[in-house]
Amino acid sequence: MGPAGHGVHGAVYRAVRASEAPSTPVALKLALLPRDPRFSREVELLSRVNHPSVPRLLDAGEWQHPADTTHPYLVMEWVDGTPLYDWAQEHASSEEQVVRVLAQLARALEALHAQGAVHRDVKGGNVLVRHADQRAMLTDFGSGIHPGAATLTPPGSFTGTPAYRSAESSLFSLRYMWDPSAQYEDKPSDDLYALGVTAYRLVTGTYPELSDPFRDEMGTWQLGEMASPPPGAIVPGLDPQFDALIVRMLRVHPEDRGTARELAEALEQTAEQLARQHSPASHAAPHEAAPRRGPTWVRFMAASMLLMLSAWAGWEVRDRSQVWPSFFRTESTPPGLEGSDTVGLGDAASRMPPVESPDASVPEMMSMGTLPPPRPGQATPDAKGRCPRQGQLALNGGCWIRLSLEREDCEGSGYVFTNQCYGPVLSNPQRRQPTSEPGSPP
């Protein structure tokens, strides 16, 4: 028994009940912050949902820290499985298998949405594919919301993972960037968009990109449809119906996505058709071909262009390892968990200094909702709101240019805004001041 993972608010352990013989493993999730109200919300949410792709809630309570702080915990069904992106890569999963897994996740969301609840953090890292029967299990309901639950997300922020944020949530931040009291309300359509991002990422190895924002004739910010090509344009031979369903989940207008039930039915029908079209011996073929080279060199060129743009603009680029894409690239594993030794219950919490209980002012996992104000030397729009050159965008009082870079690589080189990466435009790059101190090496 020992640690099995951790997130922003909790640590998960593989544990056994001392009173049971033989003992059956369970998942024990312990709050890192004392009296974290998110745990009571998660307990309530899990108690309302009964679905084979959602871990069963077995128990809940509180644990007394040696420093005399109280940490809530919950006990769930243990899922012996592999993270979604790892599973797809390790098993050379067929197209039919991938479609069935996504259908199971859509069914789990259907059960959740039937309770008026929203998961708010659907992504590959929160999905395990169970070893015993290859069933997809949706996990980590700590960010979820249900009717009557307390609001813990401060105005101007959102809950979830930036790369999976819906188009309407990004558009809300753009339209209300000057209103500090504006509060976005998550809906089932946000979960469906995140499922679409998961599907796109699973199939292509890249994240879908939104189009550049623009103002309509009334001056209201709008977003066009997805700027990225459909998955079928990246992965030749992808089933057209499957391709269309992924694009459907990523539609800018929420009503165009349909419901979780409708998507689940369509995915199940597609899986059945694929099963009839392909024999078992050929199931691995679609995902073993070589068309992955396309995204690899595209990403290499994008990274090269970013380095040149960063040097031209004079903004510092943080050192980081180059991440090369694969057809099913995995999300990062929390540091320190690979091959770690068994530790005692509450070890993660005991390393946290005693703090006061969180309240509504404590932000949940969130991304930047607005771009920062213009920095010294950054170009600004003229009186008519226009930037110096075509293709530059006037946002938050400054001029910005969209960078062809994955959102997960944007940090340190630009800013993530409306699910895209933007870099500042200098007002006079030919006469910019040196960025290094006198006498410092180049």
From TrEMBL:
Matching entries from PROSITE patterns are given as:
PROTEIN_KINASE_DOM
- Positions with biased composition (Low complexity): 270-284
Membrane-crossing segments per the record? none
Q: Report domain Protein kinase positions.
A: 1-271
Q: Name one GO molecular function term.
A: ATP binding
What is the annotated signal peptide range for this record?
none
Q: Which UniProt keywords apply?
A: ATP-binding, Kinase, Nucleotide-binding, Transferase
Region of interest (Disordered), residue spans:
270-292
Indicate what this protein is called per its UniProt record: Protein kinase domain-containing protein
Q: Which species is this UniProt entry from? A: Stigmatella aurantiaca
